[in-house]
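Lab notebook page, bench 4
Experiment: in silico fold of construct C2
Operator: M.H.
Input chain length: 149 residues
Purpose: comparison with the prior construct
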Amino acid sequence: MTRESDRSAWSRSIEDDELADKPRESRAMRSRNDVEKSWHDRGSFRHAVAFTFADIAAALIALIAALIWASNRAACAQADSVLCDGSARTVVLFLPALVLLIGGLIAFGKTYLVWRNGGAWPIWQGAGWVMFVCLLLFLGVGGGVLAQR
């Protein structure tokens, strides 16, 4: 009996020494394994999708506002094109892109905050990448169209 109790005390002291060498995991790290693929959080998903659609809608509104501004300028009143000069082209190209960039950065910031709290962070990371892809598509197509003028 004493041998077993001595052995268990000895093994517990070794386990305690091994655990002391390892960094302590936070509650968030213990609650979710990043390799695990069960990232189901309906509330976070709905919030990320609504944020993404709102940011894309805001970029479209910014594009429409920039086009209206460019068409009502005195410098372009007699021109045959709405985008008659460099300032009109710059505003029409970069204002919606700026809206998408800010939305993507906010989504990536939210990714970090959700990850730090142990939540389903890939949902927000996906939202950020969707906005960055839309940003690149808009700049690529818009820049190509404006370069032809």
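Observations: Helices lie at 2-21, 27-31, 42-71, 86-116, 121-147. Residues 36 and 52 are 25 Å apart (CA to CA).
Next step: discuss at group meeting.
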